[in-house]
Model the fold of this input.
Amino acid sequence: MSSTQRDVDHALAYPEPPASPLWHRHGAKARLLTDAQKRRNRELLDLAQRKPRTADV
Done:
């Protein structure tokens, strides 16, 4: 199907503005997790995956 007019979503017709400089980290690197924090995260993830989902309506 050929058309001389293109189907364009005009909300997307302009380029996206540049990302905020606040989104970029130029300073300190993220701290590594301790073994205790890693263990706690694994436990919470395991618990969340086993728990039945509830509808938040």
Summary: Residues 8 and 34 are 50 Å apart (CA to CA). The longest helix spans residues 35-50.
